[in-house]
Amino acid sequence: MAAREKKIRRTPRRPAPRSRKLEQHIAVFGESGSGKTVLLSSFYGAAQDQAGREDSQAPQLYDLVADDTTQGDRLLKNYFRMENSAEVPAGNRFRAEPYRFTLSLRSTPSAAERKAMPVDAVQLVWHDYPGEWFERSVSGPEEERRRIEAFRALLVSDVALLMVDGQKLKDAAGEEERYLKALFHTLRTGLVRLRDEILVGGKELVRFPRIWVLALSKADLLPEMDVDRFKALVLEKAADELGQLREAIESMVVGDEALAVGEDALLLSSARFTPGRIAVRERIGVDVILPLAAMLPFERHVTWARRQEIPAKVARELAENAGTIGTGAMALAMFGARHRLPGRLGLISTALATVVPLLSKDMVQDAASLAGEKLRGVHDRALEKKQSLAAILTGFKIDLERAEREGVLRRSRR
Fold first, then answer.
1. Double-GTPase domain: from which residue to which, for each copy (predicted)?
2. If DSSP codes are grouped into helix, strand and coil, which group holds residue 233?
3. How far is it, in rounded angstroms, from Cα 47 to Cα 61?
4. Neighbours of 36 (CB within 10 A)
5. How far apart are alpha carbons 25 and 161 in whole angstroms?
6. pLDDT digits over 359-372, tens only?
7. CA 294, CA 123: separation in Å to the nearest integer?
8. Model confidence pLDDT, tens digit, residues 272-327
9. Cα separation of 144 and 191, whole Å?
């Protein structure tokens, strides 16, 4: 009996397998009527609209598919009703429903290629938080429970979009501060109201949305407004209220140095709306959402994790759990795991099991800061060698650079 017990004690415990998914969550916050439901329908409809995709000169390397067929069909119904009947979808009042999308490669990798890939799947989870829950009190205990559950579900998000309603901003022309101050006050009050329910025992959170992007919805109504003018307007008219919102968010997280509230900005228009017609293919910024959700957290986490003043557990969380797979595997996915890596990365073995532990902080930084001609060179090599995942991720970074040149996106330089 003793020998048997001794044998059991010597049996090693197998560690749980580490996920190889690049899974990014995005949370969308805005008042009711700010265009959140239309935006989601436009985002998915554009990904499925074959006629619209054929106009693009870029090679189509992937498909984006809703994991829940019923959800996907509902979004497509909204999209095609906008296109064919000029019918705007109704908002999700008092209901928070996450949507999960999977990016699948168009060319199926061989068994050897799949083994070498540091990522098995790329997924995006979209959390649409109802504006009504910021604007008014809940009706009872059941709705309060659903509100808290919805907010807890989106805590894994790295990126949050703060929707500024372009229609309301236009209506307040000359007095924009009235609308902007009220908006940020409403969002801050809603977060403060949730604070005690979200923080168990008052303990601040490590996992929490840390990149809060100012997003101007219905940007087609303000054609003279580029992203820099938009951000300047917000700071001119409501910098104090935006700062108070940031303080409310800071009070909920560990390591508030790793936090960007209103530092990034994006213009969004789900379609061009005219009387009797909705031009769904005349979008602004919608095609930037997936690249933003996939790449911005990686870039920002690497930058933040290099800072010595960030608490160790926050730096570790950002470095190891960013996008589920970790920053090292993300860097390899960008460069492609089966061909010689550029620069210092080329000096080490490209066998995946060997490379990931050997990636230094500088090497990961090289991947995060890849830009300009060097970025295009890595992207072109990935296309040439049919490294689809690397081509997709570097293509996402190219999309972000293009959006900045076009005045649609502005990333924080901090």
1. 25-232
2. helix
3. 12
4. 24
5. 11
6. 556 677 888 889 99
7. 9
8. 999 999 999 999 999 999 999 999 998 998 888 777 667 777 777 776 655 445 67
9. 14
